[in-house]
Specification:
heterodimer, A: alpha+beta, Uridine Diphospho-n-acetylenolpyruvylglucosamine Reductase, domain 2, Alpha-Beta Plaits, seven-stranded antiparallel beta sheet, five-stranded antiparallel beta sheet, 19% strand, B: alpha+beta, 11 helices, globular
């Protein structure tokens, strides 16, 4: 970990001014304030200094200078992340890639696009539209979030059951390592010799290198896409219907579920004509050729009816389809309107465990006296319970965090994971101790050291120190077994 | 049973640490030709993984199977087929005893790869033993999981140099309702152009290959969609199409009968490989198989000038490095990782690169 002194920082400040134009450095309280948090506003910290380079060479220079002075660096895209991954350090440099916002090349014949990391997710699909191609991963924040951040977090979205996550949809990265070297990982071809460093970089949360260029895969736009909105009077029935669709051999493009509090909030906000009395709704999107979609829509409609759907609505045109999705895609801000604050969780479970988890969440909700709205990527088992709270009430944030932590531990117990797509960041660092043993955490540290031996890139995020886990051990006694028994307690 | 076997394998690795010996990991021994020939010194022992076999869990509606690495690939494919599912990356077997562990360690994918994904795309989790003899688990059985670095996918294609695979969890997919192959007689130039056009279309493709003046277009999906695409694509419907794709995937096609070294070129879809030798082109133009006597440098250049890389897939020459050289910094990262996972250089040392 860094041992940079105030003198190191003063020296670094002078050197940064030599390699960057004045407009690329933000130092005053007023200037650095907008960078004090990312999408997880519960954690706030103003950075020591913000730099906004415009060229790869500038990024290299910044990293070399920081490396020499031992000053830590946090890279940042649009700051829409939900786990505090881009939370700045009081003694560190915040490296914003906002100025890297150009689409460098779209190559329809290679079904790929080369883009800078600060390009917005949706902008890629918009630029590829003239070739009838698009970039598949579509996180809900896609109008704002950037591709560099998507790679750092291995972002998902509502269509990843069929089209995969970021890791499945990129070909090549250019990254600058902490010692300032520019390297290419992956290639323009499908296979690249050597270890799969592309997979290692994807979802590495800014811990291994700074992404300065991304080659994404593009897909042909499907001829037709239609979505069915099915209402259920019981959450468990909706969950079973999800399993039935998959068992039928159908992989929907999207398969989403919302419970009653989420439905009501979304309807108030987006006016998507959601059935507000339903206990749960499923959104099932099918895409492909006209013939295939027509065939599958009928099949799925029948299946949903058989599985107890009380009403069905199928989009007949693009406007209707988008309207149905608007409710789901605005679920987070919609919940934000009905509660002063909300805390979004991101566990994943095997789908069959859904009734168990929902029951437990509702029990915990009563125990903590905090309401929960559930939004769920049902097709791939990724839960987003939104815990409603009021940060102005003393102690409520802490109770919310404890409640959220318990949900994540339940996900691990059910055979799942603490984070499906939002990342560990600052937020879930303690739950990492529940999911992984010391040996595995040690390997994560080893990987980090293989790339960044001085731990200068985004230190303190994504992987907890073994001592941190040992200190928390008391909180995580499962089946009478103490986690990390080999470590000293203090 | 299984935990005993894990213990047995772990003991072997620990013993190798103590004795300063090296281990050559062998599953079904069907892909022994792939990668560098490792040293057969007195200090090198064979570690058999086939003792560690069996499906650990499989629930069709969860679209996930978990099996021990020594499980025969055939057994897994039969089980999936009984449930109307499949391994979506069509791993080549190259022999009747091929194991799941071998398929993942080599990371090879068949003709469906450009359209559904590769071996690494479908790996969800692994349990491994490191070169220090430590048992560890990464990833899991769920589709979305971003906790910790993606060590599971790092194992794919690492040829066992970073860890001994114990168990692998894989995402599976439903088998397509219908599958047919259209065969069109065209020149290579025409075929490449058609492949590109089709590859940008929303047709239900599952393979595009070219050999012997013929373009092969495989269509998979709902019956109605396949029938409609069949008309659009044109050409003749290939009888016994499954045999054709099997022969390509398993290299039992007559094309592969040659005494010359076999090269595998992974290149961008748009690559133009200028070579006198007639290639077998797969992956919609992104994979070339070539029999050639040309020097390694010449073949590597053919691939690298197009933005790809060549692998010396089969050769009688035991001394040649099989994989394309890595840039210095990338190589350094490889060495760093190897040092962390297998600090004593016990596991398949030299199989991927002679110094790893």
């Amino acid at each position: 970990m860094t041992s940079a002194t105030k003198a190191n920082r003063e020296s670094l400040r002078k050197q940064l001014h030599q390699v960057l134009p004045k407009t690329s450095i933000l130092e005053t309280e007023e200037e650095t304030h907008p960078y004090e948090c990312d999408g997880l506003t519960a954690y706030q910290q103003k950075p020591w200094i913000v730099v906004l380079p415009e060229t790869i060479e500038q990024v290299q220079n910044i990293l070399i200078l920081c490396y020499n002075e031992g000053v830590p660096v946090v890279a940042r895209g649009a700051g829409t992340g939900l786990s505090g991954g881009a939370l700045p350090l009081a003694n560190g440099v915040l490296l914003s890639l906002a100025k890297f916002n150009s689409i460098l090349n779209i190559n329809p014949a290679n079904r790929s696009a080369v883009v800078q990391p600060g390009v917005r997710n949706l902008a890629i699909s918009q630029a590829a539209e003239e070739f009838n191609l698009y970039y598949a991963p579509d996180p809900s924040s896609q109008i704002a979030c950037t591709i560099g951040g998507n790679v750092a977090e291995n972002a998902g979205g509502v269509h990843c059951l069929k089209y995969g996550l970021t890791v499945h949809n990129i070909l090549q990265l250019k990254i600058v390592t902490m010692d300032g070297e520019l390297i290419s990982i992956g290639s323009q071809a499908l296979d690249t010799p050597g270890y799969d460093l592309l997979a290692l970089m994807t979802g590495s949360e800014g811990m291994l290198g700074v992404i300065v260029e991304v080659t994404v895969k593009l897909l042909p736009r499907p001829e037709q896409a239609q979505v069915i909105l099915a209402a259920f009077d019981n959450v468990v029935k909706a969950g079973e219907a999800v399993g039935a669709i998959i068992a039928e051999g159908i992989i929907p493009a999207g398969l989403e579920m919302m419970d009653n509090p989420a439905i009501r909030a979304a309807e108030d906000y987006a006016h998507a004509d959601y059935p507000v009395d339903a206990e749960a709704i499923l959104l099932c999107e099918l895409d492909g050729s006209h013939e295939e979609v027509n065939e599958q829509i009928t099949l799925v409609e029948n299946l949903l009816t058989k599985k107890g759907a009380v009403s069905l609505r199928t989009s007949c045109n693009e406007a209707e389809r988008l309207k149905i999705w608007l409710g789901r895609k605005s679920a987070f801000p919609a919940v934000g309107r009905i509660s002063p604050d909300y805390y979004c969780m991101d566990g994943t479970i095997p789908r069959k465990q859904l009734p168990f988890i929902l029951k437990k969440i509702s029990e915990l909700s009563a125990e903590y006296g905090l309401l929960v709205a559930n939004v769920f990527h049902a097709g791939d088992g990724n839960l987003h319970p939104l815990i409603l709270y009021d940060a102005n009430i003393k102690g409520e944030l802490e109770r919310t965090e404890e409640f959220g932590g318990k949900i994540l531990e339940l996900c691990v117990e059910a055979g799942g994971t603490i984070t499906g797509e939002h990342g560990v960041g600052k937020e879930k660092i303690d739950q990492m101790c529940v999911q992984f043993k010391s040996l595995e955490l040690q390997i994560f540290h080893d990987i980090k050291h293989s790339f960044d031996p001085q731990e200068l890139l985004n230190p303190g995020k994504a992987v907890p120190s073994l001592h941190r886990c040992a200190e928390l051990g008391g909180m995580h006694v499962h089946d009478g077994l103490l986690s990390h028994p080999e470590l000293e307690r203090f | 049973m299984s935990s005993n076997r894990t213990q047995e394998l772990q003991d072997r690795i620990r013993a190798a640490v103590n004795n300063k010996s090296m281990l050559q990991i062998v599953g079904g021994n069907s892909k022994h030709f792939y990668g560098n020939t490792t040293s057969q010194s007195a200090k090198s022992e064979v570690l058999e993984t086939r003792i560690h076999q069996g499906v650990v869990s499989y629930e069709p509606s969860e679209l996930v199977i978990t099996a021990r690495a020594g499980t025969p690939l055939k057994e897994i494919e039969v089980l999936l087929a009984e449930n109307n599912q499949m391994l979506p990356f069509e791993p080549p077997h190259y022999g009747e005893h091929a194991t799941l562990g071998g398929a993942i360690a080599t990371g090879l994918s068949g003709s469906r790869r450009p359209f559904t994904g590769s071996a690494r795309d479908f790996v969800l989790g692994v349990r491994i033993i490191s070169g220090k003899g430590e048992v560890m688990s990464f990833g899991g059985q769920v589709m979305k999981n971003v906790a910790g670095y993606d060590v599971s996918r790092l194992m794919v294609g690492a040829l066992g140099t970073l860890g001994l695979l114990l168990e692998v969890s894989i995402k599976v997919l439903p088998r397509p309702q219908q599958e047919i192959t259209q065969c069109i007689a065209v020149s290579r130039q025409e075929a490449l152009k058609t492949m590109q056009t089709l590859n940008q279309s929303s047709q239900p493709l599952s393979a595009l290959a070219y050999e012997g003046e013929k373009l092969y277009v495989r269509l998979s999906g709902a019956a109605s969609a396949v029938t409609s695409a069949q008309k659009e694509v044109g050409g003749e419907t290939l009888i016994h199409a499954d045999n054709f794709w099997q022969q390509l995937n398993e290299q039992s096609h007559p094309f592969f009968e040659s005494d010359k070294p076999l090269w595998r070129l992974s290149v961008p879809y748009v690559a133009e490989i200028d070579s006198n030798e007639q290639p077998f082109i797969d992956w919609a133009g992104a994979l070339y198989w070539l029999h050639s006597d040309k020097s390694t440098e010449e073949i590597q250049q053919l691939a690298s000038e197009q933005g790809g890389a060549a692998t010396l897939f089969k050769t009688p020459d035991q001394k040649q490095e099989r994989f394309a050289p890595l840039q210095a910094k990338i190589k350094q990262l490889h060495v760093n990782l190897k040092m962390r996972f297998d600090p004593y250089g016990i596991l398949n040392f030299g199989r991927l690169y002679s110094d790893l």
